[in-house]
Records
---
Amino acid sequence: MTSAAEQRAPAGEPAAGTGQQPAVVNGARRAVPPAPVVWPGVPTPLGARFRVGPDGVAGTNFALWAAGAEAVRVSLFDEGGRETRVPLTELTHEIWHGFVPGVMPGQRYGYRVDGRWDPWTGARWNPAKLLLDPYARAVDGEFGLPPEVYGHVRDWPEQSVADTVRDDRDSAPYVPKGVVVHDDDDWSDDRRPKTPWADSVIYELHVRGFTRLHPDIPEELRGTYAGLAHPAAIEHLVNLGVTAVELLPVHQFAHEDHLLRRGLRNYWGYNSIGYFAPHAGYAASGTTGQQVGEFKRMVRALHAAGIEVVLDVVYNHTAEAGELGPTLSLKGIDNRGYYRLQNDARRYADYTGCGNTLHVVQPQVLRLITDSLRYWVTEMGVDGFRFDLAAALARSMHDVDMLSPFLAVIAQDPVLRRVKLIAEPWDIGSGGYQVGAFPPLWTEWNDRYRDAVRDFWRHALPDVREMGYRLSGSSDLYAWGGRRPYASVNFITAHDGFTLRDLVSYERKHNEANGESNRDGTDDNRSWNCGAEGETEDERVRALRRRQLRNLLTTLLLSTGVPMLVAGDELGRTQRGNNNAYCQDNEVGWLDWSLLDDPAWRPLFDLTCRLIALRHRHPVLHRRAFFSGRAHSADGLRDLAWFTARGTEMTEADWYAPAATLGMYLSGRDIPGRDERGMPVSDDSFLAVLHAGDEPTGFALPGLPWAERYEVVVDTSREDQAEAPGTVHAAGTEITVPGRAVLLLRVA
C-alpha cells in the first residue's frame, strides 16, 4: 500500500531501502564515506559480537533472525550521528549475518529490515525505521516517541485504519542505538552466596529509588548501579539481614507515549525493549558500554556482602504495545514471528494488558528469552529471576500449560534450572490465575498469603482457617510434586500497591498524581486506616498504626515460606496513598532515608532487624519441609499444633468459628532433614499468639507436654522492640494479650 507519509518525509533523506547517504543536508555538503567491506561471518551467536576474524583482523560479527525479511542492513553511526548502511547478504536458517572488519567496541548501530508492508496479514516491515538489536548488550540514548518512530502514520485522520498506512519518515535521529560491547571478564574472583531457598529473605528494591536520596552516597552515584554498590547502601542491607535483593526491571526499557504526554516517565520499568542491556538510565559511568561493567561491579559488591541478586524480568510483552504502538525493534524485524497475533492478524493477542504478548511457543522467541536469561547468569553474575506475569509465558497456543515449551526448556537447561526462579503466577487472560500450579524448581508469589494476612489484621476474616494455612507454609497450595514450603514467597506488600505504612493509613487509593483521574490501580486493597484517612496528628491513631506495622512485619517473618519485604517498609515509607506509583520518579517513589533517624520510625527498623536475625538463628522458623501435624514421640508432642485462647487444641469446629485469636506452636524437636554434617536438626520450640481484636484477651498457655515455662521474645504492643521483653510465664497460666498484638514466646 502506498503511504501518504511519503509526501511528508524530511527533505534530503534517502529513499527507504536504498542504503545511500544524502550528499547535501540542510544546504551543507558532507563527505560520503566509502562502503565498508562485509565478509560472510557466521550465524551464531546472535547479536553484535566483537571478535578476531580471518587473517587476525578485528571486527564485529552481526547476526539477526528475521525470518520473513527480504533484506537486512546494519546501520553504523559515528560520533556525529552520520549513518553508514552495510547490507547483510548471507542468510542461514533465517538468520542474516555478516562480519564487518574494523567495527570495534563502542560502535553504535541499529538494523533496517525490508519486507512486505501488509498489516492485514501481520507483516509490518518498514526499512525507514531504525531497529534496536534484540541482542544488543548496551543501549545509548533514550526512547522518545515522536511520530517518526511509528511504522504507521500515527496522526492519520481515520484512526481506525491508521495502523495500515505506512510512515516512511526516517526514525534514526529519534531512537537510541545499540552499542558493540566486548567484555572478557571471567568472574574468577566472584563468590556467589548460593543461599538455600529455605534460608532466604528477599528484599524488593528499585535501583534508582533506593539510592536516589541516600545522604551517604555521593550525589553523582545516587540512582545508579554504582550507588547500590556503595558501602552505605550495602551496609543497610547487611544490617537488615536480607539475603537477596530483587531488583525491579533493569533491562533497557522505554517510556509510554501517554506518560510522556503528561510530563511523566515509566519509573518501575515494566516496559522492556532490550533483554540483554542494563538500563542505561541507571549508569553513572557512561552509556556506550560502560553500564555493563558498572552493573557487574554492583553484583560483585553485593555478592561480597553475602547478598544474592535476583532480577524482575518482563519477557511477556515489550514496549512496542499493540498495532498503534511504535516500531522500535521486534515489530519491524518480524512482527508475525515475535508476537502472538489474533485471527485478524492486524491485532495482537494481549494477555498482559500492555498491548502485546511475546509468542513464546515460537522457537526463536524462546531462544531469545533463554539466551537472555543465560547471559545474565553466566556473564552478568545474577542469581535468579522473578518472572512478571509468568502465566503468559506458560501459555502454549492459547491456554496456560504447565508442560509448555517455556517451562520445559527451563526445567532441562543446565544453567537456568540451578538459579532461583520466581513466578508471578497469573496474567490477565482467561484461565491466567495459576497460584500453586507451577512445577517443582519454581517458587511463586503467594497472593493468597497477602490477602489473608491483610484481612486478619483488619479483623475481616470470618474464621482463622485461611490464616492457619498461610502461616504454616500454604501446604494446601504447594504440598504436591515434591514441592517444599519455600515454594511460597510470602509477601504483604510489593511494588504494586500500598506500602506497608499506607496499608494502615488509607482505605482508598489516592492516585491523582498519575494523571488518570484516580482510575488506575486496584480498588481491592484490603487496607484499614485505623480511624483516619491519611496523615493525622491524632497520636492515638498514629500509635495504633505503628503497632499494626509491627504486627504485619512480625507475622511475615514468623511464617513458614520465603518472606519478601519491600524496600522502605522497615522504615515506615509512604507513597501518600498512591497504590500505583509506576510513574512517580520523585519523592513519592524514592526511599526517604530521614526516617531512619526519626524516633517515631527507628524502632520499626530495629524490630525488623531483630526478627530477621531470629529467623536466621532458628531452623524451626525456616523449615525445609512441610509440617506433618503428627506426634513423633511417645509424649504426643507434634511438630505443629494450634490452640484457642482457652489453651485447648483447635477442633474442626474451632476452625470454622468466628475468632480473632490464634495460637501456633512450632516444635523444634522433630525438624525433618539433617545439617551439612549429617546430624539431626533440632531447635527451640515457640508459641506464637496472634490477636487481631481491638480489646485485650486472655490466653491460657498450654501445659505439658508442650512446655513447662514460656519466655516472651517479641511483644508487638511495645513501642520499643530493641531488646527482647524477657518475661517468663509458667505453663497453664492465663496471660493477657493486648489488643491487636503478636506475642512470640520461646519454650523454656
---
Amino acid sequence: MTAAAVRYDPQGVYEVLADLASPCYIVSGGGRVGAMPEPPAPGGGLRPLAAVGPLSPEEIGSGDFRRHHGARYAHMAGAMAGGIAGEELVTAYGRAGHLASFGAAGLPPARIDRALERLRGALGPSEAPYACNLLHHPTDPAAERACVDACLRHQVRCVEASAFVRLTPDLVRYRVAGLAPGFASGGVRAGHRVVAKVSRPETAELFLRPAPEAMVADLLARGQVTGEQAALARTVAMADDITVEADSGGHTDRRPLVVMLPMVLRLRDRLAREVPAAARVRVGAAGGIGTPEAVVAALALGASYVVTGSVNQALTESGTSAAVKRLLAEAGPADCTMAPAADMFEQGVTVQVLGRGTMFAGRAGRLYRLYRDHAGLESLPDAERAYLEGRILRRPVAEVWRDTAAYLREHRPEWLDRATGDPKYRMAMVFRWYLGMASRWATEGDTARRGDWQVWCGPALGAFNAWTAGSALAAPEHRHAADVAGHLLRAAAFHSRVTQLRLAGVRLPAVCTTYRLPSAASGPGTSPGARTAGPSPVPAPAPAPG
C-alpha cells in the first residue's frame, strides 16, 4: 500500500482503528504518525511502529465459553431477582446470542414454572442460550428444591447458582442428573450446566471440585440419580464456569475485582494439579462491568467472559417499572449505598441499592437499629412507634402484622409459630414486610410509595451512564438489550486494539482512541456487529510518534 493511503488526520486514524474486520498498522513518515489497514510497502518511506490484528466482538473472551453455551458472545447477563431479569429480557438477549439468566429468586413456584415454560417455547426450539437463577435458601430449602424441580421439568440446560455458601442436595441433584457418557471422543457430557457466582475463594473451591461423594450416594439411594451418573460425578467439577462477583448491586461483598479474580484463577490452577476436572472450569468477571474499558480490564486480568448486572435493569426489556428506569438513567457512580437485606435482616446482612431519588436506605437502616436495640414492637418508644407507623409503614403496626401473619400461615407456618411466641422475631417479620414490599413498589412503579423504592444497583450503572451521556443510549427508551450489549462488546474490541497499541508504546490523541456511540439524533439502532461511524471529531493534533 502506498504512502498516500496512510490516514494522518484524527478522523482517519479513528476509522482505521474502528474497522475491526481489518488490521491496523501505525506507521511514521515525514515526521508524522498515521494509520493504515495494510502493512507499508518496503522502500516506501514509511516505518512501521506497531500493528494490531482484526478483532470482532465475537472473538473477545473465551471461545470455549461460547461453544459450550451455544452463545455468540462471551458475555452473560446475570439474574436480577423478582423477575426483573424476566422472560422478555432473557429472550431478547438469547435471540441476540448472549447467555442471560432468568431472575427466579423471590418468586413463587407457580410464577417460575410459567416463566420457564415461556422461555422453553421462545428459545428452546432455536437452541438459543438461557439460564435460570438458582438462589441458595439456607432457611428455606423447599424454595430451592421447587426451583430445581421446575428446571428439570422444563429441561433448562443451565442454572446460575448464586449465594451458595455450601453445596446442597438439590444443586448436586441438578448437576449429576444431567451427566452422561461423552461422544466418540470419550469423556463426560454435562447436560446440566452450572455457572456458579461467588465472591470468596473458599466458595469457589466448592465448585472447582466434584460433587461430595456422600451427597451423591444419598441421591443414588433415593433413586434421584443413576449409578452411571454417580460414577461420572467423580470426574467432573460441580461447575462449568465460576463468576467472580466484585462490587455489584444487591447482595455483594464489595470486593475489588483486581484482587478477587486473580486469586480465584490461581486457586483453580493450583487445584488442577490435584483435581484434573478443575482445569476445565472457566472463570468470569462480574461487578463493575458497565463500560468497554471495564470489559477489557476484566479480560486482561484473565476472565474468560464478563457478566453485566446493574446495567441490565435499565434496559427497556427489564421487568422493572419505567419510572425506575428513568431514575437509573440519572444515577452516578457514587449514588449507591448499603441497606439491610430483606432475606437476611436479622443477621445484619446488607445489599447495595440506589441512594439517589429514594429514601429507602435510610428508612431501612432505621428499622434495623430499632430491631437491634429493642426486644419487640411493644418495647418501642412512643415517638419511634409514631414515626414507624406514620412515615415508614404508613399503616398501623397491627395491620401490617395481620397481613404478615396471614402470609406466613399459608407459606411459612413454622415461622408464624416462632413469631407468635417470640416478640423480637415478630418485629423482624413486620420489618421484613416493609423491605419486601419496597422492592415490589419499585418494580410496579407505585408512585405513592416512591420514597420507599428499593432499587438494587451497583456503581457500574453510574459508569455506564457517564459513558453513554449525550448519545442515543442515554435515553431509557433507547436502551434495548441487543443495542447496549452490542455497543459494549464492540467498544471493548475497539479498546482492546487501542490497549495493545499503548502497550507497544504508541501514543494517540484521545479523539482517535475513544469509541463513538451513535448520537442522540441518529438513534441507537445498530446490530451487535454493525460498524458505528459516530460523529466527526473536533480538530485535534496529529498522533505523536513514540
---
Amino acid sequence: MPKKRSGGGLSATQQAAKFLGVSVLAGAVMAGIALPAAGALGLAAKGTVQGFDEIPANLKSPQLSQRTAILDSAGHKIASVYSRDRTVVDLKDISPYMQKAIVAIEDSRYYQHGAIDLKGVLRALNKNAQSGGVAQGASTLTQQLVKNYFIEEAGDDPTKVAQATQQTLGRKIRELKYAIQLEDKLGKKKILENYLNITFFGEQAYGIEAASQRYFSKHAKDLNLQESALLAGIVQSPSRYDPVNDEAEATKRRNTVLTRMAQVGDISGAEADKARKAPLGLHVSRPKNGCITASKGAAFFCKYVENVFLTDPTFGKTREARAKLWNKGGLTIRTTLEPQAQESVQTSLKEHVYKSDRVAAASTLVEPGTGKILAMGQSKPYGYGKDETEYNYSVNHDMGGSNFGFPTGSTFKPFVAAAAIEGGKPPTQPYSAPYKMNYPSPVQTCSSKPWVNDRSYTVENESESEKGPYRMKEAMAKSVNTYFVQLISDIGLCPVMKMTDGLHVVQGNGDKLPENPSIALGAIGLSPLTMASAYATFADRGMYCTPIAIESITQKVGDEQKSLQVPKSTCSRAMSEKTADTVNTLLRGVIDSGTGQQAGLSDRESAGKTGTTDERKNAWFVGYTPNLAGAVWVGSAKQNVKMVNITIGGRYNDLVYGGRVPGPIWRDAMDGALAGKDAPDFNLVDIPDDNKDKGDGKGNGHGNGNGNGGNGDNTGGAIGGLIGGTTGDNNGFPTPTFSFPDGFIQGQSNGGTRGNGNGGRG
C-alpha cells in the first residue's frame, strides 16, 4: 500500500481521497445521490479536508457471523446453531456465473472504476434531476460492502442497525472514505468475495453459500446461469423478490439480470433467451437451526452446552459479551457426549416410557474421575408441541431445568450414611429402628440452635414387620426409614451438610439444602445431573469432579482456526477412600438383595439406590459401576400424577417405585453404554452379615416380609407426615398416620418389589 512520501505530504491515493472527500463526497452526495432531500440529511456535510480527515483512518473488517457446529466426543455433528445462517467460502468456490451476475446487476463497471464510480455518479445525478427525486443511486460494490460491514458490526441491536443504515450525509461520507481504503487494501477479487459472503439473500440466508443451499440445495460453486441470475436479483430487495413467496416477481427480476448480463457481454443473447425461458427450478431446503434439530435425542444436552457457554465466565466477563461471541458463531464445539452412551440412554428411555405417557423420564450418565457428561436424554422430545417440552429435567433451573428439581426419596440416604461413616460410625452401627417412632429430638445443627421436635412428629416404616434392631447394611438394602432418622439424629445435621457440600448437592433452584432432619428421607428437589455427579464420587473412591460438557472449542477467524479456553472439571476429595468403599459395599447390597434387584447388571459389578416419593409422584434409581454413574428420574414435571394403576411404556403398573420403572431404564442404559468397555471391580470392605447375629426366627421374619411386602423402601410415611398430616395406604398393612404441619416439606414413598406403601401426601 502506498505510504507518505519520505519528504512528507500525501500519496496519490490519499490526495485523491481528499479531493473526493471535498468534491464528490460533499457535492455529489448533497446533490441527492441515493439520499433524501437535503433538508432531511440529518448531518451537516463535511465539506472540508479537515472534516474528511476526522473520520478514523482504518476500517476493521468484522468477523462475519457464521454457523456453530456442536459435535459429540467422536467428532460427529449433533447440531448446527447460528444467529445468521452463513458459511464463508472462497471466491474459487463460487460459480463464475454468480460472480458475473452480481457484478452485472449491481455494479457493471466494477472492474473499470475505483472505489467510487464517477460516471455512475454523473449518470445518477442526471437521472435523479430528470425524475425530481432519487430514482437511481451510484453505490459501488465496494461501498455496499462497507455498508454491510457496519450492519454486521451492529449485530442484532436495533439501535445500532438503524445507525448503520440511516440515510445521512455523515454515514455516506464515512462509507465512501472506507471504500477507497478497501480498494487500496484488498483488491477487486477479495472485495467481491467478501461481498458475496456478507450479503443478505432473504429467507434467513446470509452469504452466497447459505443462499445456494436454501433455494437450490446445492453448493455455490455448482450454480448455473439462471440460478445465479435469480440470486443476484434478490439482493436489491430480498422481500420483494423472494422466489418462495412470489415466483412471478422473482422471475421478472431474474430475467432483468439475464438481460443485463447480455448487455455487458457476460453472456450471449441466445444464452440469455434460453435462460429466461427456464423455470426457476427451486429446490428449497428449510433452515435447520438450533438444538431442536439435534440428532440422537441430544437436543437437551445441546441446550445445556449453550447455557454453559452463556453463563460461564471462561467465555467472557459479562453475559452480554458471551452472547455476542455465541451469536458471532463460527465455532466448532467438541463436547463430552459419547455416541454409544447417548444412543443407549435414548433407546432405553424410548423402550420404557412413551412420549405420550402421563409421566416423563430423564436420565444422565457421568464418568467418574473426569466429570464428563457422557449422555443426557429424556422421554419427551425437545419442542413446543404436544408431548414435547423445552425444559431439561436433568439439570438445575439456571441451566434450563425445572424450577426446583424433583424430590429424590431414599436415594438421599447414602449421603447420610457417608457422613456417618466419615465421622467414625461403623457400618455395623445398630439402632432400634422400630416400626413407628417419634422423631428423635433435639438434633444438633451447624448453629448453636438445635432442631427440636416440639410437635411430636412421627415416622414409620413400610410395614409392621419392618422393625429392628437393624444395622446399616440391612437398613440400606431395605431402606428402613426409622433407622436413618435415628442415624441423622445421632450424628447431627452438620456432618451431613458438610458431606453434601463436598458433593455439590444443591436444590434444583440452586439453593443450599435446609438444615432439617427430613432431608434424610429425600424430601428436597434435586436434579438427575446433581445426583449422578454425587454418586460418581462413590465410584471414584471419594473424589468429586464438577460435571463438564465441553472438551474443546475452535473459532474460525479469517482463514485460521483459533482455540478458545474452555471450563475444566475441578476434582476434590469429598470423603476418604475407606468411606467411599464402605458406601459402595452397602449400595452393592441394595442391588444384590435389596430394593434394586431389578436394576442389577449381569456382566459387571454395580451399586445403587432406589427412591420413591410421596404418593408415588417421583421414582428414582441412581447407580454406578467403577467407571460410569447414572441417574434416572420418572414422574410428572408438574408433580400432579400419582403413579398408581398407571400404564407407562405400554406396561401396566399397579404401583411404581424406584426398582420397577427407573431401575430397568438405568440397567438397559448402562448395559448399552458399557458394552465392550472394561469391567473393573469395586474395592469392597468386609461388613459382617447382619442376620448371623439375629437368629433364625428374626431372619426368617424379615425374609417373609420382603417376599410378601416386597423389599420396600417406603419413606412416604415419614415424608408424607412432614407435609400434610394425611394418611397413606400401605397395601394391606395398617394405614400410617402422620402429624407434621401442612406444607412443611415434600413427602415421598419409596416402594419395593411388591406391596409398597403410598405414604402421605406432600
